[in-house]
Design brief:
Oligomer: single chain
Shape: elongated
Structural class: mainly alpha
Order of helices and strands: HHHHHHHHHHHHHHHHH
Amino acid sequence: MLHFFRYLTAAVMTLIAVWRFPAVRYGDAHRRALWGGYAGFSVALWLYTPAVMQAVDRIPVIDLNALLRHFASTAAIIASLTYVATSYGKSSEAVMPRHVTVSRWIARASYPVGAIGVTLLTILFFTVVDRRRQSEDFLSDHAGELGAAAYMSVFYFFPLVTTAVCGYQWSRGAREAETISMRIGLRLMGISMWMGLLHTTARIVIVWTAVFFPLSHSTMEMLIDLTAMWMNLLFLIVAVGASIPTTSVVAARWKTWKTLYRLHPLWFDLVKAFPGTSLYPPGSRLAELIHMRVPSDVRLDRWTQDIADACEKLRYYAPETLLWAAEEAAASHPDPDPEPGAEAYWIAAALRAAATTKPSQHATGPLQEKPFVDTNSEAAWLVRVSKAYAVITPGDAQELLEQSAELSLEPDA
C-alpha cells in the first residue's frame, strides 16, 4: 500500500511540475521558484519509489539514493521559501509587515545556509554514517546510530523551518484571498504545511529516541511507515491545493487550445499563400499545437493578425464582384448565419485567384467590418469562418470565381 502511494504522489507532483513548466520561460521570478519547488519535490519523491531506488543502488556508492533524495528535497525547500517570500507583501509599502520581512530574510539566508547544509550533509554522509551495507530503508536500517541521527537532524532543519514559514504565510493568505478558489487552495496548502511540520517533528523525535532508547526493528519500521504515509498524504493535499486556484486558468488555456485547433485550416492556407505574413513557416496542425515557442494566448493573437493581414493582401487578387457572388453562395450554406459563410467563400475563391493570377494595382472593397472588442471575440468569429471554409472544395471556389466573372459582365454590375 505504501509503495502505491509513493508512486501516486511522485506521479501527481511530476504532472504538476510539467503543467507549470511554461513558468520557467514565461513566468516571473517567484513563479519560476514555485516550479523549482514542484520539480525538486517530484525528483525526491521518485527517489522514494522502489524502482528508482533499485536503479540508483546499482551505482557503487552505498545509500547514494538517500543522499540524492535529500539534495533534491533541500533544493525544493529553498525554492519554496523563495516563492513564499516573494509572493506576499509589496516592496513599495511604507511599512512592511513583520511576517513578510521575516520570511524574506529567511529566504535570503536559505541560499548560503543551504550551501552549508548540503556540504555538511555530504561530509556527514561519507564520514559518520555507517554505510558498510546497502540499506533497504535508510531510517529504519540506521535506527539508533548517532551518526545517522546527526545526519538526519541537519537535513530536517530545512523542512522544519520551511513548513513553519509556508504554513503561516499560506494560512494567513487564505484569510485575505479575493476568490473562493484561491482561498480554498491556500487553506489546503497551509494545512499541508502544518502537517509537514508535525511530520518533521515526529521524525526528529523518532530518530533521537532510537538513539537513547533503542526500539525494535519492527517498531521502527511501523513508525517510519506511518510517517511516510502521512508525508505522502500531505503532498497529495499540496497537489490539490495548488491545482484548485488554477482551474480557471486551465479552462482558459483549454478554450484557447480548441480555438487554435479550429482556426488552423484557415490560418495555414492563408499564411502558406503569403509566406511573409507569419513570423515563422506554418506547420501541421499537430506540430503547431504541441510546440512551445510562445504561449497559446500570444499565438492566438498572432494568428488572428496573420489572417487579417492575409485577407488584406487577398483584396489585390479578388474580383470586385466576388463578395456579391460569395454572399449569394452563402445563402444556400447549411450554416443558419450566412455572414461567416460569405467570408469563407470569399477567402477560398480569392486564394484560388491568387494561385492563378497576378495581383492588380488597386485593391477591391474590404470585407464587412465587425465590432470586435478583443482578440477572443475576433477569434470566435474566425472560428465560424474557418468551419465554413473547411467544407468548401477547390471546385466550389473555382465555380464562385466564374460566377463572379459573369456578374462583372452584367450591365448593372
